Amino acid sequence: MEFLARFGLPFLAAYHRAWVRSPAGLALAARDEQGNLVGVLLGSLDPAAHYRAMLRNSGAELAVRMIGGAASRPHLAKELAVTRSRRYSRALWRHLRARVTNRGGRSTVSASPPSATVGEVTHLMVDPASQRSGAGRALIDRTSELARADGLAKLVLVTPPDLAARSFYEALGWFSGDEVVSKSGERFVSYTLNLSDPRD
After folding, report:
1. How far apart are CA 5 and CA 20, in angstroms?
2. Could you give the angle at the alpha carbon of 100 between the alpha carbons of 99 and 104, nearest 5°?
3. What is the pLDDT of residues 124-152, one digit of tens each?
4. pLDDT in the model for residue 114
5. What value, to the nearest 5°, has the Cα angle with vertex 83 and ends 79 and 88?
6. Across 59-78, average pLDDT
7. Strands 118-126 and 154-159, how do they pair?
8. For residue 45, what is the DSSP state?
9. Dihedral in degrees, nearest 10, Cα atoms 41, 66, 13, 125
10. What is the mean predicted confidence (pLDDT) over 110-121?
11. Residue 150 in 3-state DSSP?
């Protein structure tokens, strides 16, 4: 449904491996009584650190697989160039410049950035046959526990406006916000969960 999924399974497999390897990434699985995987939640309790780690550790592989996924799809390649190339190039340039600076011994010690106060849930997927079983709620509840333990003030996510997931999040105490539009024109509704709220 989203932009990255269009680059094919090899890219998605590499992307999810990079996600799980990131120290700041969050990857939770829900299993049924027989041990079958029924749901997955991906997110981060420190999004900036998470994406930096993904770029540092897996950026080259992801770039190669993304280009490979776009090579046979001219429309996707054009969309990638128009909507993402500038941002991705800037991030890669900053990363490479930092590596060169650190290798040259010219890096300076700077104050650590403040700890993240906002975490994010980027993907919540539950097998359709297991929906309404409590798997999604368990994944969200565990994420909230981890976020509170890390001292986060809130969690955020976005979901397409026409999905039934909206009522699911609202029933769990998430508050809907503005509609946001991705660089590819996909529409989403933002949601926030205030972790200090006693109703959670």
Report:
1. 17
2. 120
3. 999 999 988 999 999 999 999 999 999 99
4. 44
5. 115
6. 83
7. parallel
8. S
9. 30
10. 66
11. coil
- Residue of 119, 16, 50, 20 lying closest to 4 (CA atoms): 16
Measured CA to CA, the distance from residue 123 to residue 180 in angstroms comes to 16
Under the banding of pLDDT at 50, 70 and 90, the label for residue 52 is: confident
Span 168-177, pLDDT tens digits? 999 999 999 8
DSSP at 130:
G
| 186 or 93, higher pLDDT | 186
**89 within 8 A of 38, measured Cβ to Cβ:** no
Token pair for 116: 């993240």
Q: Distance between CA 179 and CA 186 in Å, rounded?
A: 10
Give dist(CA 133, CA 168) in Å, integer. 12
Apex CA 61: angle with CA 56 and CA 66, to 5°?
Answer: 115
As a whole number of angstroms, the distance between CA 143 and CA 42 comes to 9
Q: How many helices (H) and strands (E) does the chain have?
A: 6, 6
Q: Which domains does the chain have, with CATH numbers?
A: 3-194 (3.40.630.30)
